[in-house]
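Q: Fold this one first, please.
A: Sequence and structure below.
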Amino acid sequence: MIRFRHRGRSAVAGRITFPRAGAIARRGPAALRRALLIAALLLGAGPARAQEPSPTPAAAVPTSNAQPAPDAGRAVSWKLLVPNILHDQKPVWLFPLHAAEGQHTKPTLAFILATAGLVALDPHDTPYFRRTTSFDGFNRTFSGRNTALATAVVPLSFYAVGLARRDSYVQQTALLVGEAVADAEILTLVMKNVDRRLRPYDIPPDGDFAHTWFKSKGRFLSGRGSFPSGHTIAAFSVATVFANRYRQHRWVPWAAYGLAGLVGFSRVPLQSHFPSDVFAGAVLGYVLSHDVVLARR
């Protein structure tokens, strides 16, 4: 058996293998520092994708810094952003009709039953978060303002990195994130103004946590209701785009969905949402990105 080396790669019997790269992680004392560190890693995953070499036959001429091919049949640009968002509304609002015709029956039924079960549990689990002080530090770190800012800053920074490196794949990923968040917030705005569910902090400590629907009188543009969670649906729509576009990095889906889960959970101890609001937001955010924005057309 003949072994030879070529530019840091070892080949045995005509096959080229690559050494594994060690992962370096730093953990800070606070949860926010850890979250920011993972967000920074997400920013580095895009450029790293373009720099990873691909195994080629020994006789082939190696290429370097090859850009990933854009998704087939999926045109993404600033010019097409608004038309794409408008185009997305058709499958979103026709989904109930398609479900009534027998499409996606099982997952739709599972979602409805799970949400109904969580709604039934809301009067029992929500008062605990009203009484406890165990999450005071967590709430200061993952406040509504901080999580909303992080959800916006990550894709914007990602787009800036793509511009600096002239990486079209990274830029398109950021634009897809923007499209997904827009779709999510449009759906959330309509649903909140229809259901007008009270938020937990609107209810007195000894109040009725069971009858919360069609009672909120909040502002229209911010959504008069609590269902679903706007922070959660946005976080999971962002996470799903990153998790799908960079799924070759095994840590990216874990980091993306982990951060989105923290954003969603933070809404419960802050008394901004019921657990059922968060669950619905997470599922809807995933479905909108995975089955609408990222679907091949």
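Q: Good. Now the second chain.
A: Here it is, same layout.
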Amino acid sequence: MGNHPTDNDRVGGIGSISVVIRSRNSEATLDAVISGLGLGDGDQLMVVDHGSVDGTRAIAGRHGAEWVEYVGPFNFSRALNLGFGAARCGHVLAISSHCVPVRPGLLGRYREALKEMEGEFGVACGSASDSLRVAQSLEGRATVVSRERLLTDGGSLPGNQNSLYRRADWERHPFDERIVSSEDLEWRVWAAREGVRVVSCPGCAIHYRNRGPLRHLFRKGWNDSMVARHLLEMRPMTPRRLAGIWWGALRRWVSGEYDAGGAVRNVAQSAGFFLGSRRREPQVYRAWER
């Protein structure tokens, strides 16, 4: 992968951070995402873009971001590998263009949460919620996720919506470009098997504001479920579990935590996960055009 500065690879001394934002037509949220990072001297900002035709590039330019053009059928892993390959810092934050930090200075919050922890880590996963009210309430100390949890359910972590990686460990195991989605889950399973530590940082929270088409969210749920089945030998989602998710979306809409569109998108993604989890033969290793 080439030689790059390690910039304090140990948790207790996180220095400069490279930020990789995957984007496509993200003008509605990108400014808020970048403004919430709290970039400092020495930090690096990159936007890996897949065919935006709106004002995404102009927003990135105003913030001084390095623009990385993604060409070809979209693949989550490929997009991140492009950014990580160009990273100059020892730690790299993967964050999506629709994931808005709920408190100012997300990078500083990662540094503060991890500074007391001894030893090295492979990835520190922040927290996420599609409810702003819930996202604003997320707090807690950084903790190491057990190997058993990682191999059972992936640690139930939000993944590459909001995760800080040690670049040296990514060099050992780049994101698998054969995989449809859930490249973060595959990476955490690899970390668990290799003895690389995975850390949960609930206080490093983002508001998940994906306003993509229902077709995109349905297919993401579908693909995520098949990858989870392949990696974790997960049992199919039950109709009762699906009904519980839909009931929760309805309650959040009634309470005002969701708007109507947010509730419908939650229903679409969970429906995709439900149906994908019940497919007899998971289709895991193929490119995905969105």
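Q: Anything worth noting on the second one?
A: Residues 214-277 form one domain.
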